[in-house]
Design goal:
14 helices, Beta Polymerase, domain 2, alpha+beta, 26 strands, Rossmann fold
């Protein structure tokens, strides 16, 4: 131990005398920050703080580790640490070789402290272009917000530990239905202007800005609005903030680029971050008003739960993902006529979509995680020039109904393929899956499901893929007009192709004139 802290493979320990944020760096590069009393558990005179999961999985090798206060003047620990007992240098970088750090959500990303001046200016210019499109071409009162506003007002620079750009717009709408309708209009018009857009909730959009260093940076667009005397801004904020603090727009400068800002930036920053907003705090975590969070969740959220976890799994654990087709894909292929169209629902890494395409099946692939859409597209372009890869958020009824409508109008009915998807969904999501299937398969085709069977894990909210009761799934399908023509449960493999004693394979049909296969269960 050096100073007032110690570093181990699973956690760090810090003296209870340390009250403020602690900044962690590896080989001189920012990696993570935490507040001991908030993020740790106390053991006698010390706080024990676990490494974030995303970082702990990468802790293998030797690095020069430093723990300090935010100013870097008080050193709590500084020494070489051999994580996992390994002597080779610890590699903590992305596929382009750029250093990674833990963001406020616990994910490993590239932060602005490891981004060059020219690229930071590109981000600011892209933010200015997005704000201009929103204000002048779409007609909404948009401005820079959150971390970008904070950095601009503090010193005109992006916050070193931040990783994306934040915008907000003040809506005239006061009802959730009108807010959502407006948000979908904004999404459509942004797409028509050439932006790549991902919907995060009923009032939260994400734009993707390509950069010269090979990555995309996210531009988040948050709805802000008043209901009565209460002001709400997605991201979870709510409370009292007069309309005059937001509009008409003022101007701030970020990385040398002029950006539209709220009318009173300092009042807005005090609302967003509290009275101490001027003091840098890389470990800052907002404490959202519970009543406001409950209302925002009920009004606008819920569509894309766990998407960050899936993106992290597909990126950080990419080397662990099987590369060849699954055994389920082979099983389904053996039951289909040559060249039968397939819709891969929840394509993940795209390994089955790619294999189906290689076998001569026209494939349209659906997922909601951006990493899945990218990986699937890359795999499919090995076989075809223009792959059909689409965004589908099954928990969003609008998204599911749109996919069902599109599939119901194809020249030839698609067979729906869903490996491990059903166990990723909550009850509402599974209901939308059956609605989608009912719409797409009325003219013919089958729904092929594979999922982990059993009920012992259903109560664990942290599982990305949960086990389901096969009989309950079959009953739900029947409620939505489907016929279960095959249901088997036995040994198989899980998402990572590891042995699993209880895997269910289910085939269902909806076509009214399909009497060749009477309902059966085994």
């Amino acid at each position: 131990m050096t100073g007032t802290a110690a570093v181990g493979d699973d956690h760090v320990t810090v003296s209870r005398e340390v009250s403020g944020p602690v900044v962690v760096s590896f080989d001189g590069q920012y990696v993570w920050s935490f507040v001991p009393a908030r993020d740790g558990v106390h053991h006698g005179t010390r706080w024990q703080v676990a490494w974030p999961d995303a970082l702990r999985r990468r802790l293998s090798g030797t690095s020069h580790v430093r723990l300090s206060d935010t100013a870097g003047t008080r050193i709590h620990f500084e020494d070489d640490v051999a994580f996992g007992g390994r002597s080779e240098p610890l590699a903590l970088h992305d596929s382009h070789g750029y250093p990674l750090a833990v963001d406020k959500e616990g994910h490993l990303i590239r932060v602005f402290s490891e981004t060059g001046d020219d690229v930071r200016r590109q981000i600011a210019e892209g933010t200015a272009r997005a704000i201009d499109d929103l204000r002048t071409r779409i007609g909404i009162d948009a401005h820079v917000s959150y971390g970008c506003l904070l950095g601009a007002v503090r010193d005109g620079k992006m916050i070193p530990h931040d990783s994306d750009s934040d915008l907000a717009y003040l809506s005239e709408q006061t009802s959730p239905a009108d807010l959502i309708r407006e948000s979908y209009r904004i999404e459509r018009e942004l797409r028509s202007l050439g932006w790549r857009v991902q919907r995060m909730s009923g009032g939260d959009l994400k734009l993707f800005l390509p950069l010269s260093d090979g990555r995309d940076v996210h531009l988040d667009i948050f709805a802000a609005f008043h209901v009565g005397e209460v002001f709400y801004q997605l991201g979870g904020r709510s409370g009292r903030l007069p309309r005059e603090a937001m509009t008409p727009a003022s101007t701030v400068v970020l990385e040398g680029v002029k950006l539209a800002a709220p009318a009173d930036p300092e009042a807005v920053l005090a609302f967003l971050y509290g009275p101490d907003w001027r003091n840098p705090d890389p470990a800052y975590q907002a404490v959202e008003p519970a009543e406001g969070v409950r209302r925002l969740n009920g009004w606008l959220r819920g569509f894309r739960a766990r998407v960050a976890d899936w993106n992290e799994l597909l990126i950080e654990r990419r080397e662990e993902l099987p590369r060849n087709r699954s055994t389920f894909a082979q099983w389904v292929h053996d039951q289909l006529p040559p060249g039968a169209p397939i819709a891969d629902l929840g394509s993940g890494s795209g390994r089955d979509s790619s294999w189906f395409t290689f076998q001569g099946h026209p494939v349209c692939s659906f997922d909601y995680a951006s990493a899945a859409l990218r990986q699937t597209s890359r795999r499919l372009t090995r076989h075809i020039e223009d792959p059909d890869v689409r965004s589908l958020t099954v928990n969003d009824s609008r998204s599911a109904l749109l996919a069902g409508a599109e599939l119901s109008r194809t020249p030839e009915p698609h067979h729906l393929y869903a490996r491990q998807l059903a166990g990723c969904l909550d009850g509402e999501g599974r209901a939308n899956l059956w609605r989608l299937s009912s719409m797409a398969l009325r003219r013919g085709g089958s729904l092929f499901l594979e999922f982990g069977a059993g009920i012992e894990e259903l109560r664990d909210p942290d599982l990305l893929i949960r086990r389901l009761d096969p009989e309950a799934v079959a009953a739900q399908i029947r409620e939505y007009g489907g016929r279960v023509v095959s249901l088997t449960t036995g040994p198989g493999v899980d998402f990572f192709d590891q042995p699993d004693p209880l895997i269910t394979r289910l085939v269902a049909r909806w076509a009214a004139d399909d009497h060749d296969h009477p309902e059966e269960q085994t």
